[in-house]
Structures are given as structure tokens and as C-alpha cells.
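Re: the request from the purification team.
They wanted to know what the chain is likely to look like in 3D before they choose a buffer screen. I agreed to run a prediction and write the result into the notebook, where they can find it.
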Amino acid sequence: LMTDSHHLDYAQLLLSETREELARADAKVSVLLATAGVIGGIVSGAIAAGRWSPGRLATWAMVTWWLGVAIAALGIVALSIAFVPRVGHPDDKSALRYFGHVARFRSSEDLMDAIRNIHGQLLERTVSQLWLLSNIVSRKYSFIRLALAAFGIAVLAMIISAVAG
């Protein structure tokens, strides 16, 4: 039989693991954005240097190339969305379960008054943060999957058009 103390310990363990997963997701986004930037720079540099141009491709290949570029841009947008911090929270700030609630107070005195009125909400606060961060991690990974799919399709389209066009 689990007591409230056991529930709190378990929720805090899950919250800690969720925070670690959030950091891993952000690291993946950073690496993928940096990689996309490097690849984009290499391709742009080759085009700017006049070594190659999508304008020299057959019409179907040029359309395929630019479709690949557009899909790659979609991947970059998806990663950018995943990287944007989530600062909103649906609960009332008086619950004081999230840094966003604290930031809504106009003064430290108002915050101190609110903290003094908190009684026995540690489990609820932990569960609230666990729910919020778990949803953030889930959304980040959805955008990462979208970006990876977009990059895969884009690379395929761009290679086919450059080689066959």
C-alpha cells in the first residue's frame, strides 16, 4: 500500500527522469539544427561558387530539387518549433506549481504572501510539473520525428534531382 509520501517519491523520480529527457530532446534539436545549417551552408557555397546550379537541371529535376529544399525548410521549422521554450501553463498562478506562475507576480512581497498560503501541495505541484514537462517532451519528440522525416525525403529528392537531372 502506497502512502502519500511514497506517491510523492515516485512522482519526484518520474519528474527527475522527465527533466533529463527534456535535456536530451533539446540536445538532439541543437545537433540537428547545427547539422542542417552546415549542410545548407555547403550546398549554398557550392551554388554561390558557380560549381553547380539547380538552374542547370532538367525541368522535372529542378522542380524535384526545389521541392526537396522546401521540405528541408519544413524540417528546419519543425526543429525550431521544438526548440522554442514553452512558458505557458493552464493552472491559476495561486497554485504556485510552475516558474511561470512565479513570474506573474508583480513583486516579491506578493510572491511571499502566496508562498505563505501554500499548505500541503507538494504532491499536486510535483504531479502538475510532471504532466506539463511530459507533454513538452512528447511535443518536442513529435517535431523531431517530423523534421527527420522531412530531412530524409528532402535529401532523397535533392540527390535524385542532382544525379538524374
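For the purification team: Helices lie at 4-48, 59-83, 99-103, 108-116, 122-164.
Please add any questions underneath this entry.
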